[in-house]
Amino acid sequence: MTTPKAEAPAGPPRTPESDAPRRRRRTGRWILLSLAVLVLAGAGTGYWLYDSLDSNIKGVDLDRAIGDNRPEKLPTSGQNLLMLGSDSRSGANAALHTGKVSGARSDTALVIHIPEGRKKAVAISIPRDTLVTRPECTTRSGKQLPPAKRVMFNSVYSVAGPACVVKTVEQMSGVRLDHFVEIDFAGFQGLVDAIGGVPVTVDRDIHDSSSGLDLKAGTTRLTGTQALEFVRTRHGIGDGSDLGRIGLQQKFLISLLSEIKKQDLLGSPTKAYTVADKLTESLTTDSGLDSLTKLAEFSRSMNGVDPATMDTLMLPVRYDTQDPNRVVAAEPQAKELWQAVRADKAIPESARKSPARGGDTP
Q1: Theoretical Cys-Cys bridge with 192: which of 42, 56, 227, 351, CB 3.0 to 4.6 Å?
Q2: Apex 239 CA angle, 237 and 244, nearest 5
Q3: Contact call for residues 275 and 31 (beta carbons, < 8 A)
Q4: How far is 211 from 189, CA to CA, in rounded Å?
Q5: First vs last C-alpha separation in the chain
């Protein structure tokens, strides 16, 4: 789905001076990628604060973990980022209302494509219940894991870790992923609370005893706990499958980015530091983004991307013929989608049609 951008009202002529605040606000929109800029904007915070945040970030060397068996990086393919939401039940996450599954899984997975020219991003959700072929991987403990067919996508993380998820997505899509960012439940909750909540609007009541969400129709400013319930809800919407939840996740992503833009965190160094601290303590990235300096450099290259124009869609899937509780990539739609991403082209309408939709999203 695409969120239309409202037409700006007429105003005084734009000058370099009047454009400066506009550029700073654009930088603050990508919270996961703009972390360093938000912190460095308060230059008086001191080196020890910078060092504290820098050491919070955990990094993974993808090239070392995956090896050379990766898709070719095309010169005009833009930038591709894999964003993972981890549902680990350990540590701070154990106190959250997130179910009783042991271990950790990639509960949310988004392939974000930033085209060459950095003007409009595309976010592609991969349903967690998708059956995929897991390639041969090296686990976090260094053990070699043989390839396996028909495994649930979200199980790859728990079995082999984020590098294997990257390798799996690359092999199923043929898209070279430049970076990955992972945030766990506790970090997500802290981020939402740090910005004072995020408003979302739904057309009808949602009651999900599994996630704990009890939401009335209309607009509600969600707390961190409610936000977790919102993006994990599935039983109170659509057909109760994971597909309906994806629509809520996309709705929340747009609202989160819009709220960050509205608050202009760059104008409040103290609040910016609080947001950055909550996020970095639960952040894992590839080695290309595992410091504030690297995040800042990548963020500056994203200045022209406006979240209001972000195109959010789901990997086209159909219900599996052997197990109706699982889905598989629908062809030829999925092939057309990944081909457009590889070629840095607009996503064709034919690639947006998914035989399995999971019901309407509120």
Answers
A1: 227
A2: 55
A3: yes
A4: 14
A5: 14
Residue 80 bridge partners (DSSP):
113
Containing 22, the helix (H) or strand (E) segment is helix 16-28
* Whole-number Cα distances in Å, 294 to 9, 111, 289, 337: 36, 20, 5, 30
Length of the chain: 362
Q: How far apart are CA 54 and CA 52, in angstroms?
A: 5
Beta-carbon contacts of residue 13 (< 8 Å; ≥ 6 apart): none
Taking the model in full, what pTM does it have? 0.76
Strands 179-184 and 283-286: antiparallel
pLDDT bin (cut points 50, 70, 90) of residue 13 is: very low
Tokens encoding 266: 């760059």
* C-alpha triplet 317, 319, 320: angle, nearest 5°: 110
For 291-329, write each residue's pLDDT tens digit. Answer: 877 877 777 777 667 766 788 899 999 999 999 889 999
- Tokens matching residue 299: 């963020």
